[in-house]
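Pilot study result, target chain (213 residues):
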Amino acid sequence: MPHDHHDHDNLSPSGHPFRPDNDEPLTYWQTMEIALREILVEKGHLAQADITAQIDAMDARNPSHGAAVVARAWVDPDFKAQLLADASTASRDMGFDIGPMHLVAVANTDTIHNLIVCTLCSCYPRNLLGLPPDWYKTRAYRSRAVSEPRAVLREFGLNLPDTTTLRVHDSTADMRYIVLPARPAGTDDLSQGELAELVTRDSMIGVGLPRQP
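Predicted structure:
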């Protein structure tokens, strides 16, 4: 299962990862998006500067927002309960604009581990976690996370005991998931900000665990 942790193969002579050129013909929906955008700009309903600013804002999102949500849930039992009951509202209450999507938080425990995938494309809680990693969008991950999830996790370096129940959650265009990983042991003296630094993107997808203090 290829992913960006150990992807040192396929390097170009310059040492950069090789990626094929994205020069295939535009899809129907890409063509429609360009046409609609150009019409809206031409009619004065949108400004190109506004579009660029929004793209830049989306690109600037990163997993720190999700990490802040997780860290607060670790230290605030009432917020954790709210997060598990209604993750969309809980995230908004922290000041994070997650748009209209329905966000669901699923908690890891001593006996349950959760894994997130989007089998159709790459639906992902970008507002909290930023852009999805390349491996999340690959056909291999999208199919194998469902058919052989334990093997996929082993390739990420996560070996779950046979006694752990593994639950795979399939995201959709309307509903996204975020994993609430278990709080690492030995972190009782850490502040909420210090705890957030332990939360990794992969732990909020379910292919990894938080850092140890």
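One observation from the pilot: The chain is about 40% helix and 10% strand. A full batch analysis is planned for the follow-on phase.
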